[in-house]
Structures
1.
Amino acid sequence: MMCLLCRSHNVRLLLKPSASLSKTLQGQYFISSERFGLHDAIYQCAACSFAFIPRLLVDKHALDAFYENAPLDIQYLRDSFGRKKTARRILGAIDSFAPPINPHKRILDIGCNAGLFLREAELAGFEGYGVDLSRNAVLFAQKHCGLRSVVRGGGNAIAQFPDNFFSVITAFDVLEHVYDPFSVAALVDRKLRKNGLFVFTAPLLDSPSAKIMGPYWHGFLPSHLSYFTRDAIARFIARNGWQLVMARYYLRFFSLASIIRRMVQKNDLWLPSFFNITVGAHAFDEIEVYARKQKS
């Protein structure tokens, strides 16, 4: 078996399967899923520390259908207050790193889902574009968020944009889900302008939380196919010729209402508007990366 990142054959079994990926792909996908500790066999490269589910176990057609048919995640939408605040924090960092670009400041959000981040990006002055496999999510983004530039698709949809078109491309909680994160990275590199930013997040396999929780870590989810460490992230960036601008822990904001609903497991629980107050939280086990394209 060969490592997908560095091509080394020094790959070993990290975790035995606790769930079947093929059965997972027969079910429904929800962003807010909390089925922690469930995964197929995970292997790790001894050379670069990148970990992955062997692609021989992945039916790509079933994987695409899994996301294409995903229903709207009501729990995800109910916490729009927290997600929008998370978006504004990231957009603030983007604004501080991205060079002023005229006459267009275009942003592409890969895996944009219902378009909550893109809506905030447009309010911040960006010309927003988005791609997502989910029919229901794309329809919601178009109809309820007014994002007509959101289209359904994956790599095929990204490929349709002109090269050197975007000043910023984002992918939040995406790379661990896709069949080939390195093909996605190659597309990102083509579509970014010189000095453009690629901003992405990913769970950290070598984080203290992951080490303490072991096989029960919440980063081990049935739909995760790839797992990055800090070293693997550095190699991923170097492989594409990008410059690392900043890497920090991914701070998410959640409304108190969302936290309470999760605790009592009632998505439709009515709560006064006071509970829409947001709080920041993270387990120091997910990284937020800003990388700059250097070549034209």
2.
Amino acid sequence: YEINGPLFFASAKHYAETLKATGFKSKIIIIRMRHVPFIDSTGLHNFKDVIKVLKDSGTIIILSGVNKKVMNDLKTFDFIDIIKQENIFSTFKGAVERAKELFKQEV
């Protein structure tokens, strides 16, 4: 799934609704954030709720394309405790390699 543009309250809510509507179930999900220059505080709160729901359902979340500003915001809201530093990447290639590594561990 790719997020395009700043992550505000409405886009975080839309993201959650999209996942629910599709009946999404996966062991690993990569969320591409290369077009997210920043996340507002309400967006961070809602995004964190989405991440918790995914994690509680057994999904491993990997973030790619995370810039320095967004990374600082994620640290401020304790996302690192939920997602883990080793699952956050500046490039999509790094995220895919991590997903492959995790998939091999599952098999």
